[in-house]
Amino acid sequence: MTTALSNRNLSILPKEIVRPVYDRAALKPGIVHIGLGNFHRAHQAWYLHRLMQEGLAGDWAIIGAGVRAYDAAMRDRLLTQDCLTTLIELSPGSSSAEVIGSMIDYLPIEDSNAPLVQRMSEPDIRIVSLTVTESGYFVDPSVGGFDAGHPDIRHDAANPDRPRTVFGAIVAALKIRRDSGAGPFTVQSCDNLRGNGAITREAVVTLARLSNPTLADWIDAACSFPNSMVDCIVPATGPNELALVQNLGVADAAPVTHENYRQWVIEDDFCAGRPDWDKVGAIFTPAVHEFEAMKIRILNGGHQVLANAGELLSVATIADCMAHPLISAFFRKVEKDEIVPYVNPVPEITPSAYADLIAERFSNSAIRDTTRRVAFDGSSRHPGFILPIIRDALEADGEIDGLALVEALWARMCSGIREDGSLIDDNDPIWKDLTTTAKAAKQRPTAWLEQRQIYGSLADNSQFSDAFTRWLGMLCENGVAATLSAYVDQGAAE
């Protein structure tokens, strides 16, 4: 027997499930959030919900939004259940559930993004926040910044009243606010990008300047773009997660599972006010970059160390990768020898201690975080999480052998066939191009590095190129297990 999730049914949910104690009907909106995936609901929306549970932030409720047609399915699921979500926290030996209610509406999805633009232009919206994935920021690694030549960006520059992109919609809304006197809002990125606020500012201001330089100047001067670091492992929802919430007695079409850890570090730069997230555990500090670098390099970079090896060896989840002796040994050696040396400490934890914490979190077998999910969008994740470490190591005359093997594993994975002969389904926005290049790289390894939009000048570094070429050749000739063993044993011999 399950109870359909809705406002009306909150009081009759199973007693062990925590639910909102605040009056959701009295909530007033203050935030439009674009990108209502699992991570947002387990992280930013949870922090706001916790404030509301304390009787605070009642005028900061979230209105959800999306800019792509596929967002409509999530909108339908959430509106059917009054925008409530069941969060299930999974620890190795226990679990708990909580229904959060900080989101109160979800805007219609339209090609012109007119409902989104209109709602953001209204003065009660003081923060527009984003989780649109790393690839959603139109960053071109080959030029080191915003890709103003992308077709969607060119469209928005030529048609500012009918934007396709999130940034075009933000620019359109800010123009209305400037002209109406409603004033600026804060644009808050919650994606895994180092300097996510600065990257977001560049995207919004550069796009505005393409069509309206005066507006661009106003946005740059008046709006805030705080940098932040977000951290919580949140798997995708599939049949197992749906069954889990059903077993708890709740009919929820969009439940979210997550680990028993969260962190949110935020630069306190909000031009139109903000909720007091620090009262429920968020950290406001000007030192976001140090926290950010530690997390992005050790956690997000560590994910990439594991995921491609796991995919090639048909290891289903990140926890399974950590239980695999060879993959785990590879992970621990790369983290210790080639990532931790290029991370600065932050208050209360050293890079080595944080790496140990990440190994423990990754080993949580209750979290079914698939290697496929973690390996997704490597064309954005490797330039963001791995390549900056390689550049720092090369500049310091440090070791990059294991990181070169990480890149070779990615190239081998993009050929589209696992070691057992099974096919790897498309797993990147540019999968076809990657697959074509990966196949060519079997005969000429440097073909992979010549993807300048990914590697830039790294392709010209002989130390990196030679190591990559050696590892890719070994992967193709001897297989993944033998190659990982060669790297791990090499370290043991030393």
UniProtKB/TrEMBL annotation:
Presence of keyword Hydrolase: no
All residue ranges annotated as the Mannitol dehydrogenase C-terminal domain in the record: 288-470
- Give the GO molecular function terms: mannitol 2-dehydrogenase activity
InterPro entries according to UniProt: 6-PGluconate_DH-like_C_sf, 6PGD_dom2, Mannitol_DH, Mannitol_DH/Oxidoreductase, Mannitol_DH_C, Mannitol_DH_N, NAD(P)-bd_dom_sf
Keywords for the protein's UniProt record, in alphabetical order: Oxidoreductase
Uppermost EC category: oxidoreductase
- Taxonomy, superkingdom: Bacteria
Instruction: Spell out the PANTHER family in the cross-references.
Output: MANNITOL DEHYDROGENASE 2-RELATED, MANNITOL DEHYDROGENASE DSF1-RELATED
Recorded protein name is: Mannitol 2-dehydrogenase
Q: Which organism is it from?
A: Phaeobacter italicus
